[in-house]
């Protein structure tokens, strides 16, 4: 039996950031990842100021920025007419308002920056080829069984093992996530492979009935990232193509920039999009959930990973402030569930807004058309509020100081 004071299950964006956040609070931890090496599948990722605030606090923002792109704006465009519906300006006023820019980057560039910082920390142990199969509660610990026969005993387990979380099965046992009725194709191509695409220094969000396409540059502007999403009646083959005509049906009648994007899209994998309704509990005894394991959401606010980053600093802060693990986890979820819930629900609503048809689409366009690009009213609640964890410190300093002294011998 191997022992870890704190065991993080899953070494994706959420799990590795949690390890860093714990180390920042002088707490040691072990991360167990089922893959043979740490890595991200998928392509680009958008990171809003609430995520950059976390990355900055953990000392990895500089590394993340090295390969990222700062788009000058995001534009919502009508995919059939090419008309601009509305725009959000990411310039000086945005940065002054939220303290950080909005960035887009390649997922592997983000993960590698976090991973390098984890590797440099003497408080973090990283273990690969450790697929967790099950958990069980024992007096003051949780035991974790891995597929390779390895067993762990941990004082606290943080399940950051994604959409199909094994830790979630132990904590909530609530079955499979829901199919939201949308599928996606996504990938990157060299940006010069699509000369007609306008998204060279911006995020372009093409919308139409039952579909949308997001395009933006990544890897210092060398690659174009694209995510095509559309409503599909059937899930089809989860690992391959749906009905062969499905892409053409949605994109054939759209403006040239959309059709050109579709033509060069890497179609090696069809993603079935799933989420869950919000939950009122993420914790069982000394085990809790984080990131997609806790609050899987559709990606239409581009916040799944951003919320996982927020979870990471809050769980570390709560464990640092409370001597009792279960009280710490209760405090963590009390802070995080309301915010994650709002993000999950807004994500679904956003899907309905961008996929609208007929009179609903006309109303959307009419309402948004008069918006100023520097009107940040719609995103204020989302990008502004990460420092909830700071509020936790009220009354908690004494416990934190005690904990900091104790961890010297941890
Ligand atoms: C098309 C699309 C676009 C998106 N775009 C954005 C965006 O622009 N911005 C944004 O913020 N979010 C975006 N998201 C959401 C974001 O990708 C996720 O919310 C984020 O990756 C969740 O991170 P995580 O660490 O919680 O889970 P994951 O990234 O799923 O990581 C889980 C890790 O756990 C490991 N694991 C799983 N099971 C086990 C086990 N049993 N034992 C050990 N290890 C295990 C996995 O191998 C993996 O490494 C998007 C999602 C999709 C589908």
Question: What do these coordinates show?
Answer:
By secondary structure, the chain is an alpha/beta fold. It has a single domain (2-177, 276-407), classed as FAD/NAD(P)-binding domain (3-Layer(bba) Sandwich), CATH 3.50.50. It is 36% helix and 26% strand. It contains 14 helices and 17 strands. It has helices at residues 13-24, 49-57, 61-65, 92-98, 107-119, 166-171, 246-251, 256-264, 304-321, 325-354, 358-369, 380-384, 388-391, 397-407, and strands at residues 2-9, 29-32, 44-47, 73-78, 84-89, 103-106, 124-127, 132-138, 141-146, 151-159, 178-190, 203-208, 211-218, 223-231, 270-275, 283-284, 287-289. The strands form three sheets. Strands 1, 2, 7, 8, 9, 10, 16 and 17 form an eight-stranded mixed β-sheet that branches. A seven-stranded mixed β-sheet has the order 5-4-12-13-14-11-15. A hairpin with a 4-residue loop joins strand 9 and strand 10 (151-159). Helix 1 (13-24) runs parallel beside helix 5 (107-119), helix 2 (49-57) packs across helix 9 (304-321) and helix 9 runs antiparallel to helix 10. It starts with a strand and ends with a helix. The model is unreliable at 392-410 (pLDDT under 50). The structure holds flavin-adenine dinucleotide. Residues 9-15, 32-35, 45-46, 130-132, 160-163, 166, 184, 186, 227, 271, 291-293, 299, 302-306, 308 line the site of flavin-adenine dinucleotide (FAD).
């Amino acid at each position: 039996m191997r022992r870890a004071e704190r065991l993080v299950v899953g070494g994706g964006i959420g799990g590795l950031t949690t390890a860093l956040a714990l180390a920042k609070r002088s707490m040691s931890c072990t991360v167990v990842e089922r893959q043979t090496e740490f890595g991200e599948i998928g392509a680009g990722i958008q990171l809003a100021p609430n995520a950059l605030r976390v990355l900055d606090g953990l000392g990895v923002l500089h590394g993340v920025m090295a390969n990222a792109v700062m788009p000058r704006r995001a534009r919502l465009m009508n995919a059939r007419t090419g008309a601009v519906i509305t725009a959000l300006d990411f310039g000086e006023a945005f940065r002054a308002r939220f303290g950080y820019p909005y960035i887009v980057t390649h997922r592997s560039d983000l993960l590698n920056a976090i991973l390098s910082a984890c590797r440099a920390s003497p408080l973090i142990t990283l273990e690969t080829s450790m697929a967790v199969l099950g958990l069980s509660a024992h007096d003051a610990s949780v035991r974790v069984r891995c597929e390779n026969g390895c067993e762990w005993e941990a004082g606290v387990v943080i399940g950051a093992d994604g959409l199909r979380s094994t830790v979630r099965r132990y904590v909530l046992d609530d079955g499979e996530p829901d199919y939201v009725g949308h599928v996606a194709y996504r990938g990157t191509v060299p940006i010069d492979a699509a000369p007609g695409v306008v998204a060279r220094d911006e995020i372009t969000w093409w919308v139409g009935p039952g579909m949308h396409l997001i395009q933006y540059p990544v890897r210092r502007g060398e690659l174009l990232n694209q995510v095509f999403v559309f409503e599909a009646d059937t899930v089809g083959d989860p690992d391959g193509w749906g009905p062969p005509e499905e892409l053409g049906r949605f994109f054939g009648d759209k403006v040239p920039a959309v059709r050109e994007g579709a033509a060069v899209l890497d179609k090696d994998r069809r993603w079935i999009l799933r989420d869950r309704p919000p939950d009122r509990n993420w914790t069982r005894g000394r085990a809790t959930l984080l990131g997609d394991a806790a609050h899987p959401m559709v990606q239409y606010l581009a916040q799944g990973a951003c919320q996982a980053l927020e979870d990471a600093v809050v769980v570390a802060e709560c464990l640092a402030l409370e001597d009792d693990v279960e009280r710490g986890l209760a405090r963590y979820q009390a802070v995080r569930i309301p915010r994650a819930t709002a993000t999950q629900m807004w994500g679904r609503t956003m899907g309905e807004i961008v996929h609208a048809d007929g009179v609903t689409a006309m109303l959307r366009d009419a309402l948004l058309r008069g918006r100023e690009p520097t009107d940040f009213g719609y995103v204020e609640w989302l990008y502004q509020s990460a420092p909830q964890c700071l509020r936790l410190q009220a009354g908690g300093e004494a416990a934190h100081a005690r904990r900091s002294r104790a961890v010297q011998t941890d």
